[in-house]
Amino acid sequence: MSAVGIGNALAGSKAQYHLTIAGENALMLYFDQRIDPAISALVQQACALIKAGLADDVVDILPSYASVLVIFNPFSSDLYRVQAQLQHCLAQLQTGDSRSGKLVELPVYYSEESGPDLALIAQTKNISIDEVIERHQAISYRVYAIGFAPGFAYLGEVDPLLQMPRLATPRAKVPRGAVAIADRQTAIYPAPSPGGWNLIGLCPTRMFNPQAEPAMPVAVGDEVRFVAIDKAEFIRLGGELPDAMQAGAKP
């Protein structure tokens, strides 16, 4: 098969997908481009099948919402061989089961002190701060992707009533552990960084620790549930309040 033909999905495959060239030693696997637990489950199946089927030929496998980037070793294989291997692996994909990961509970200190945008969300949605907190905890969230920083897990989808646009002006610095909402997603900042998401609390769990094994408590395909804790428990679990909070000032 020529390189041009890589763009066509296998006829008769149980799951529809599309393969394209993404570089001299990379292929991109696309599924239906939407945020959906069933699509996420296919992404996770594909990653496992590719890892098992291509073995040492693979340098890295990078999953996202509805795609998988496969980077292979050009010294041990080539595009045509990897294409054939991928198609063989992907013929085993099964549709229908959207559960593919573990359930992870993460504690959150929700308050106006730790979540400076809680009041804004409550006011915008004409509900109480307590209801914002209750609704955020009420459902489980799927880990759809990890990035823009190590440990930054994109979780979806939030209660429609809690959906909020990103801030018009991003903050210069968001503290590590900040729990936030933007559009249909929620996330935890793994390290201090600029950010434009709406902050509603702080999580003491480290979302990225290169000295730990595994380095991240969640992976793509896992389910996350948030559990409210008070300030004392947050500190006991290793949480750190930003300097402004410790001084009693509003962040």
From TrEMBL:
Gene3D superfamilies: 3.30.1360.40, Cyclophilin-like (2.40.100.10). SMART domains: AHS1. The lineage of its organism: Bacteria, Pseudomonadati, Pseudomonadota, Gammaproteobacteria, Chromatiales. It comes from Rheinheimera muenzenbergensis. The gene is pxpB. This is 5-oxoprolinase subunit PxpB. Its EC number is 3.5.2.9. Keywords: ATP-binding, Hydrolase, Nucleotide-binding. The keyword Transmembrane helix does not apply. SUPFAM superfamilies: Cyclophilin-like (SSF50891), PH0987 N-terminal domain-like (SSF160467). PANTHER family: 5-OXOPROLINASE SUBUNIT B. Residues 17-218 form the Carboxyltransferase domain. The keyword Nucleotide-binding applies. Pfam families: CT_C_D. One of its GO terms (molecular function) is 5-oxoprolinase (ATP-hydrolyzing) activity.
